Amino acid sequence: MNSKHADLLIVGGGVIGSSIAYHLLNAGYEGKVIVFEKDRKYEYSSTSRSAGGIRQLFTTKVNIELSQYSLHVYKNFHETMKFDGFDPEIDLKQRGYLFLGTDEMMSKFEEHLKLQHQLGVNSEILDKAGLLNRIPELNVEDIAGGIYCSESGYLDPYSVMQGYIKNAKRLGAEYVYDEVADLVLDEVFQNGVKMTNGDTYYAPIVINSAGAWASQLSQQAGYPLPVVSLPRRVFQFDTEVPLQNPLPLTMDPTGVYFRHEGEHFISGYAEDYVPSMDFSWKRQDFIENIWPIIGHRVGPFEQLKLQSGWTGLYDHNTEDHNAIIGEHPEAKGYYVAFGFSGHGMQQAPAVGRGLSELIMKGKYDTLDLSPLRVERFKENALVIEDAIY
Ligand SMILES: Cc1cc2nc3c(=O)[nH]c(=O)nc-3n(C[C@H](O)[C@H](O)[C@H](O)COP(=O)(O)OP(=O)(O)OC[C@H]3O[C@@H](n4cnc5c(N)ncnc54)[C@H](O)[C@@H]3O)c2cc1C
Questions:
Q1: Which end of the chain is more exposed for a tag (fewer CB within 10 A), N or C?
Q2: Which of 261, 286, 313 is where one domain is finished?
Q3: What CATH number corresponds to the domain at position 345?
């Protein structure tokens, strides 16, 4: 059993933890940074199993600004992150993001549009003709219109994560591929982590970015936060007849989404709320809960072949479905970045940037992420989104 020392420990080396490590070091942080990752191949990480949707169509200032910042980064990711021997390709497809709406939903969309426009999002309301212009095969019988943002779209989450990992390592981060058993949060002696193999690492700053596993670690350490892990399934299929245009990431009023994935398609939905770590995947789920909806919505989806799919975990915040970011008010040096509730890919660059500023300067500079602070639950200052599925 060894005990080692560093300046800053990050538990969880997925897209969030690796973005934080990268941003700290890229901003000139001089301390020793260690990132702990138990799943070397990232087989079960939420990042590897993400649908990769990027949208500006949020309804709170903080979420819109997080997404705007991240989109800007993703557009330039290749140029910013490439170095000798590493050429990241994140496959950003700016094909748009579209919420389809029934009559009752359209007035809400008009409301959302006001804030989005104030903040510079190029969202627009589409009528039936506008929808058919983009997706000629759409059945608009029971649809009044939609809200659409052409700049948004989707990307390859695994490649984004690799971009941050490789650059964090290049700048000096050490990755330890082992499991953290417990957080040690003791400001009098020292903060740190205990490993399953018996080793202990000490550092004044510990960041918990362990995704769907983070809440359990925080609870064990005596700092519970309202986050559970929720399984979410993704289904990949092919159609006999190709669609005329590339699809935006399209959200049906039922909460079922679909988009192109290369020449194929993927789809998923807001499943029942049953917290677990169950990675099982069932064809029957698609046949019962998704096919009837997408088959009704898009002509060629009536005749499709389900090819494959997977299940990943959301770190779901049960109170307001948004990320929890910042230092814990009762544990000096303990920072959290979890609870992303299904929208962490479009927030990862901004969260890394923001948290690195908070740690190095004691305040946010580029973006104000304080609405997502830990204290909001006690202060009854929840961040309520009208557009999370
Ligand atoms: C099916 C699905 C669809 C999604 N679709 C979208 C989308 O369209 N758009 C969007 O923005 N977001 C989406 N998300 C959410 C997004 O993917 C996540 O918010 C984001 O990937 C979270 O990144 P993370 O680094 O926090 O978690 P992870 O990628 O899970 O990384 C956390 C890491 O911590 C490691 N870890 C955990 N415990 C320990 C421990 N004790 N010791 C050491 N290591 C540990 C894990 O192995 C893991 O690699 C989706 C997620 C899923 C599952």
A1: N
A2: 313
A3: 3.50.50.60
Percentage helix, strand, coil for the chain under 3-state DSSP, each rounded to 5: 30, 25, 45
| CA 187 to ligand 1 center in whole angstroms | 28
Within this chain, do residues 214 and 340 fall inside the same structural domain, yes or no? Answer: yes
Task: Name the residue among 4, 32, 5, 33 with its Cα closest to residue 17.
Answer: 33
- Judge residue 362's burial from the number of C-beta atoms within 10 Å of its C-beta, 0-12 exposed, 13-18 middle, 19 or more buried: exposed
Could you tell me the two tokens for 164?
């941050």
> Would you call 129 helix, strand, or coil by DSSP?
helix
In this prediction, residue 318 has a pLDDT band, given cuts at 50, 70 and 90, of very high
Atom of ligand 1 nearest to the CA of 209: 26
Q: What is the pLDDT of residues 347-373, one digit of tens each?
A: 999 999 999 999 999 999 999 999 999
Q: Tell whether 232 and 217 lie within a shared domain.
A: no
Could you tell me if residue 81 is inside a domain?
no
Q: What is the CA radius of gyration of the chain?
A: 21
Q: How many CB atoms lie within 10 A of CB 372?
A: 25
HSE, side-chain direction, 13 A CA sphere, residue 235: 26
Q: Which domain holds residue 191?
A: 3-73+157-226+319-377
Q: Specify the number of domains making up the chain.
A: 2
Strand partners, 205: 8
Whether residue 53 is found in the same domain as residue 164: yes
DSSP per residue, 26-47: HTT--S-EEEE-S-TT-SS-TT
- Residues 269, 279, single domain; the answer is yes
309 and 324 belong to one structural domain: no
Backbone angles phi, psi at 5, to 5 degrees: -125, 145
Count CB-CB contacts under 10 A for residue 139: 15
Mutational test site, ligand 1, from 345, 347, 355, 385, max ligand atoms within 8 Å of CB: 345
Cα-flanking dihedrals φ and ψ of residue 41, to 5°?
Answer: -90, 0
Q: Please, which pLDDT band fits residue 110 given cuts at 50, 70 and 90? A: very high
Same domain, 232 and 298: yes
Looking at the CA of residue 13, tell me the nearest atom of ligand 1: 33
> Cα dist. 84→90, 91, 159 in Å?
17, 20, 17
